[in-house]
Specification:
The chain is α+β, with helices and mostly antiparallel strands. The chain is built from nine helices and 14 strands. The strands form three sheets. An eight-stranded mixed β-sheet has the order 4-3-2-8-7-1-13-14. A hairpin with a 5-residue loop joins strand 2 and strand 3. The longest helix is centred in the first third of the chain and has 15 residues. The structure holds N-hydroxy-L-asparagine. The site of N-hydroxy-L-asparagine has 13 residues, from strand 10.
Length: 325
């Protein structure tokens, strides 16, 4: 194909892609379109895992990780573990546009966002997130993110245990078990979106509630440049979703963009980034989308079937692409 403008997003988040398309097709910059698209997902609470009221942590609280990156200047703005403010991508953009920083975290990220005019403080819980958390408690807090540690009686407090003790058969949660259970294929968790605008400029963004039942304070790949997303006008862009605790150890989106810079096709670059992780973590679940500056796109995944959404000038509406491992 090789045309722009074009919008590409993880998962079948059609409404988000339509919102970004409407903006970029109307002449907006790639950055503005990414904000439109990711904000739409946050407002719709895509899959109950983006925006307010998704993926509760161990305390039942929802927090937000988000990032935006400008492929012209390589500027990045991001917020991590942001509380009480629902507008993740807008907060990330405020960091990028109005500060010399890249990443703000926790309550200070919320305070910054509110001081810059975003609504808050507000409770980010929803009836769904409360229900999800209640069910998890009732299920002995399974699955969870502890390893070599076991809860005293089903749910926390968690105590350090010597590994290999007799109780490990019952309650002990090893990493392997966790990996297959915490990001179920039913929940899509994260929007990562790339846009190429009419001038050929590229931007990316990511927004997520992170991982359900995470240990409070956990930050995933979402706000990490090169992990959840990456863009460079000279090359193209990448967006990721999946088990961020594993993926952020590899910076898969940086790898995808750098591979394309060396001349690799988007499809091969995406596959290569997945297999790099899979060599060390054969059970991880994750996916990336890759797009080069000509608008040629591809997806690759590991551990689950993945879908991504595209809208370009040669389409009448958003199209969904399915990728198998
Ligand atoms: C995270 N990458 O915080 C996110 C979650 C996700 O599909 O994308 N799940 O780990």
């Amino acid at each position: 194909s090789g045309r722009f403008p074009v919008v590409i997003s993880t998962w079948p988040f059609e409404e988000a892609v339509r919102a970004a398309w409407l903006a970029v097709d109307g002449g907006s910059s790639a950055i503005d379109a990414v904000v439109e698209g990711c904000s739409a997902c946050e407002e719709l609470r895509c899959d109950g895992t983006v925006g307010p009221g998704g993926s509760p942590d161990e305390n039942g609280e929802s927090t937000i990780d988000a990032l935006i990156m400008n492929g012209i200047t390589m500027e990045v703005g991001a917020v991590a573990a942001m509380r009480y403010v629902k507008d993740g991508i807008k907060a990330a953009r405020l960091v990028m546009d109005y500060t010399r920083h890249t990443l703000l975290v926790g309550e200070q990220a919320s305070a910054f966002a509110i001081s810059m005019g975003l609504p808050g403080p507000m409770n980010l819980s929803s009836s769904e997130s409360i229900q999800k958390w209640t069910n998890w408690k009732a299920n002995g807090c399974q699955p969870n993110f502890w390893k070599n540690v076991m809860p005293a009686d089903g749910c926390g407090p968690y105590h350090l245990q010597e590994t290999g003790n007799a109780c490990s058969k019952h309650n002990w949660i090893g990493e392997t078990k966790l990996k297959t259970s915490h990001v179920g294929h039913h929940s899509h968790d994260t929007i990562s979106m790339a846009v190429i605008d009419k001038k050929g400029h590229i931007a990316v963004g990511t927004s997520t509630n992170g991982a359900s039942f995470k240990i409070p304070g956990r930050v995933g790949d979402g706000p990490i440049a090169g992990s959840s997303s990456y863009a460079d006008d000279e090359v193209g862009a990448c967006g990721a979703t999946g088990d961020g605790d594993i993926m952020m150890r590899f910076l898969p989106c940086y790898q995808v963009v750098e591979s394309m810079r060396q001349g690799m096709e988007p499809r091969l670059a995406a596959k290569d980034a997945m297999s790099r992780i899979a060599r060390k973590y054969p059970d991880f679940m994750g996916a990336v989308i890759a797009i080069n500056r000509e608008g040629v796109h591809a997806g690759a995944c590991h551990g689950w079937t993945f879908q991504y959404s595209v809208r370009s000038t040669d389409m009448d509406d958003v199209e969904i692409f399915t990728v198998v491992p």
